[in-house]
């Protein structure tokens, strides 16, 4: 029995593993590659060039791989989307191709949980094991590192980065870079502490968490100049790789930090 519904419209140049299931009225373009054991629901549109890995679940009314909403974008541009393995992509999610302004790529990693009506714009880089709750909107060129949780209707400004294990409350508006491990909420989003519960769930030790808290205090509560903060973090990083990660994030920031 075919796993592809007879009403689905699939270009002969699309490449689907034989185990892929496709629901009714779904449209799949040439240049789309889909890996093993991926389930694609009804009324989904997949535009190429796009690579989708294995074990993904893509729910109804998703639009993946469409040209970006950047006014400079053209359908003939050599841009693409790459989606990894084990992702759940719920209803009405949009993930759009990169632009020629960067490397022409929008990438989503592995094991992400992308909830209904989320939008991932052009040139975004999404890590692995993230949660993007309902209505989350990422503008162009945003980077979301591994294990990030974004509360419902979080908005992230273009070119911002959200560091690994960070978390935002619902409706947060992230206008600047949010360092690893930090919780932020509000409009604009401001740091409120460390994602302690999330770190515990992922096996961070009490010693790890204490070092991260000390680094947070140095960044946000010491009142020191950023140059002095970096010096303090450099000393602390000698005893904690996690603090080293926070320091590296700060040193590479181009938009300054959420404060």
Automatic annotation (TrEMBL):
This is Acyl-[acyl-carrier-protein]--UDP-N-acetylglucosamine O-acyltransferase. InterPro entries: Acetyltransf_C (IPR029098), Acetyltransf_C_sf (IPR037157), Hexapep (IPR001451), Lipid_A_LpxA (IPR010137), Trimer_LpxA-like_sf (IPR011004). Pathway: Glycolipid biosynthesis; lipid IV(A) biosynthesis; lipid IV(A) from (3R)-3-hydroxytetradecanoyl-[acyl-carrier-protein] and UDP-N-acetyl-alpha-D-glucosamine: step 1/6. Belongs to the transferase hexapeptide repeat family. LpxA subfamily. Residues 177-256 form the UDP N-acetylglucosamine O-acyltransferase C-terminal domain. GO terms for cellular component: cytoplasm; membrane. One of its GO terms (molecular function) is acyl-[acyl-carrier-protein]-UDP-N-acetylglucosamine O-acyltransferase activity.
